[in-house]
Specification:
4-stranded antiparallel β-sheet, Immunoglobulin-like, single chain, 1 helix, 49% strand, mainly beta, 32 strands, Tachylectin-2, Chain A
Length: 453
Amino acid sequence: MKKEDKAISQILGATLLLLIGLAILSTVYMYVLSYPLPNPAPYVEIVGSIEDGNIVLTHRGGEALDFDTEVRLMMGENPKNITVGDYLDSESKEDEKWGIGEQLVYSPTEIVTYLRVEAIVIDRATESILFLGVIQDGLSSPPVSDALEFDIAKGEEPDIIHVSGTTYAIAYRGSGDEGFLVTVDIAANGDITDTVIDTLNFDTDNGFEPNIIHVSSDIYAIAYRSWQSDGWLSTVQIADNGDITGSIIDTLEFDNNQGYEPDIIHISGNTYAIVYRGQGNDGFLKTVEIAADGDITDTVIDTFEYDSDKGHEPDIIHISGNIYAIAYRSDSNLDFLLTVEIASACNITYTVIDILDFDADKGYEPDIIHVSGNLYAIAYRGNGDDGFLDTVEVANNGTITDTIIDTFEFDTDKCSEPDIIHVFGSTYAIAYGGENDDGWLRTLQIAGNGDIE
């Protein structure tokens, strides 16, 4: 074969291979195109919320969705599958689409206030997830009401504190008016283990009106009134599992005359402050030092008599920086709120910054709580022994606005020793003794501007 013929043969071979490749590629191309491409998932923005106990999904933008769009809800441990078209109002149904601004509202049969609520929105046409999220964080199972008799002999003036996980500690006046401490187990949904974990008799003389506070790690301090009504402070050790070390770590007699209704608060570092009704029933404020290991400095650091008339049932709260507020019952059973300054070095400025008589008629057992910003709420037993709640304004520098923001009479029959806590959002709960000395729990709303509903 000539060289020219050999070259032509190679060119023809390459050309033939190229044509074969193009033919195969065309066949595959036509085969793929013979199948329809999947539709893209709709673009949509959905926002979930809980409103008045209802689960609400709001269409905030994007494409309108078909009525058969699937919504999968998980309320705690309870699933529920629904379709969009069944839960739109009549006006939203007119165009047979779920469009911008329209809301899907599902009213669950169970109460979801404390439950974790999740939602998934699925487009059935494309089998695509359009929304996946937690609408409300909370419990995996519904809350329950439970009870435990933690002392079958006597259990007066109890004060409870969270230790760790589901472990809680209760200090109280027990049998023989002695001071006792028990630990119990309370699950997140309210279920209480049927037996006490551990018990400590922290004062074999007396243990009136104990108030317990966390110090550091597994160390706790209890302020209380003991033998001959003196004021005492003791430290104890409580493990995360509820085990209580069988002996007191340290003690301090912070007032050897009189120490009624003590309330202890952490200032900073090793510094703590105790407000109480002291000698002559006057209002006293003292600072002490408690080390992280429970050792208490042997002497009181500083003392201030903030009311030389009366100082019943004081309750102290931190405002800002070195500023603290004390709500208490003074002379003629009038309720007062005053502010003081306590430096981090335990030194108390010996003057009251500001004072407000928040009930000019009568006021027993006030309990104060921070609401938001400069706003505070005080629950107390007022005129006619009824239950009252006031909102007040206290600036960061201790200045108190001269007038009450709002007042609400939450029980018109009877209220004793109210205790107010924050529940969620603008919801607050007040536990108190009511008519016939029955125990009552009432919830109400406090708005950010101080209005009470």
